[in-house]
Amino acid sequence: MMKRIAMALTLALVVLVGSATVFAADDPPKPDPAGTTIGTAADVVNATSGAPTEVDMEKYKETEPLATKLADVVGHNRISINMVWTLICGFLVMFMQLGFAMAETGFTRAKNAGHTMGMNMMVYGIGMLGFWLTGFALQMGGSGGAAALGGGTLLNSEFTITLFGKDFGLFGMKGFLLGEDVYDTTVLTMFLFQMVFMDTTATIPTGSMAERWTFKNFVIYGFFISMFVYPLYANWVWGAGWLSTLGSNFGLGHGVLDFAGSSVVHMTGGVAALAGAIIIGPRLGKFRADGTPNALPGHHIPMALAGCLILAFGWFGFNAGSTLAGGDLRISVVAVNTMLASAGGAMSAMMYMWLRYGKPDISMAANGMLAGLVAITAPCGFVNPIASVFIGVVAGVLLCVSVLFVENTLKIDDPVGAISVHGVNGAWGMIALGLFADGTYGDKLNGVEGTVKGLFYGDPSQLVAQLIAVAVNFIFVFVVMYVFFKISDKIAKMRVPAEVEQEGLDMAEVAVIGYPEFSINKTHR
Questions:
Q1: Which of 271, 292, 272, 311 is nearest to 94 (CA)?
Q2: Does one domain contain both 131 and 237?
């Protein structure tokens, strides 16, 4: 009798649990601001072979009730490790802001030190607010979240159009102002990590337009690129947008891949820098009457080199952090590839200048190191160490050739080489992924079965996808930013008056003097 009662109670409990599960599945996801429901047995069961189905979980709970409780703890810890890893890497990327500030300030003249440093500081706050207002939602609002961080399925609204019978995602529609509908630990972790990436993009043009850009126009720019331009392209690659689906829709490899942002972050910033530098024009005295360039040396090379080393340090967060998972052991490969490419870039840039001009140009070597880092940012998760060194070596040479071409042929004044470091080598990094991805990583990325392979490992279609991304980035970003700068110049002049530029922008534009003990009328200019 007791056995029958026990069996009946057990059956009723199973029915109730099953009913509750079905009901929950029909409910829309709800925010979890305390993180209490994140990390359960579902994050352990079948964790290596994809998310478990409801049937998997019910069967598991029925047969392993005590193991389920243990699995809940393990699952919570697994997600916690990934979340802490992602946040710490985000903090490292934020620290790169100091590296950019020091590099750009050191490579420019003393009379503009306060202004240059001020732009690099304020772009952080301006960009963050712009990304909070609209940028994050446009980029990630339809991404579906990140399983490694516990879900984030609240980000489930992507604006799409249908062409050729296929859906093309254009932008997200959920997450504006991080409102109550996305008040969730996973979503906020994603916001922090994505925000610091965006801010790297926003800071790049401050170098190409340094020493003549008005602060008013800079502020307008900071909001525009963080609220609209960066988020849209980032959505197409990272937010489940149309470039990421070129694989599943048209059989082009795994669709566009950019592990940590060679195109999303660096090429976007470099192309924006190109558009701005063209419109704002060269600094006074940069070009002689015959068009040949004058050297306008930076005032503090040790500061600039220190900034470059800080950037190299923060880049570990940039690249290895893009796994979003401390439990993804590929992070060691990503980190080593990042290091080796930076060394290859620094060495090849130094040797190129040494062989061509008779002396090793250390400032060019520092930019070569950054060029190698930019180039490896897209392929770092998909290539081996030998390829990484080669990618860095090519990046260093490309940097030198591009800097000379931009200045001598295009007659564009770029005080810190931002166009060449970030724009040119961002494009090279995307192409390098399409060439050297070795098929050891990336199974099921963007919903495509199999690992990622480049041209040299049997999949030319992946290279085609990467080339499409490079073309789309250049056309979209250049056209939009060129038009923006033209219009914004009518609202708030881009360029300071000639007398202010001659005297220095510090006091006139930001009410400080970077070096008050220096006479701004003498050689420290």
A1: 311
A2: yes
Cα separation, 96 vs 198, in Å, equals 12
More confident residue, 122 or 29: 122
Residue 392 sits in a domain whose CATH number is: 1.10.3430.10
Those residues with Cβ within 8 angstroms of residue 415's Cβ, 6 or more apart along the chain or in another chain? 104, 107, 108, 207, 208, 210, 211, 283, 296, 298
Residue 123 lies inside a defined structural domain of this protein: yes
Q: Is there a single domain that holds both residue 13 and residue 115?
A: no
Cβ atoms of 154 and 181 closer than 8 Å: yes
Q: How far apart are CA 523 and CA 332, in angstroms?
A: 48
Same domain? For 134 and 255 the reply is: yes
Q: Is 192 inside a domain boundary?
A: yes
- DSSP assignment of 230-275: HHHHHHHHHSS-GGGGHHHHH--BTBS--SS-IIIIIIHHHHHHHH
512 secondary structure, DSSP code: -
Question: What does the pLDDT look like over 363-386, one tens digit per residue?
Answer: 999 999 999 999 999 999 999 999
Q: Tell me: do 350 and 225 sit in the same domain.
A: yes
Q: Across the chain, what does the average pLDDT equal?
A: 91
Q: How many domains does the chain have?
A: 2
Does 42 reside within a domain?
Answer: no
HSE-up of residue 136 (Cα within 13 Å, Cβ side): 26
Entry pTM? 0.89
How far apart CA 317 and CA 85 sit, in angstroms, is 9
Find out whether 467 and 409 touch, Cβ atoms under 8 Å: no
Cβ(392)–Cβ(375) below 8 Å: yes
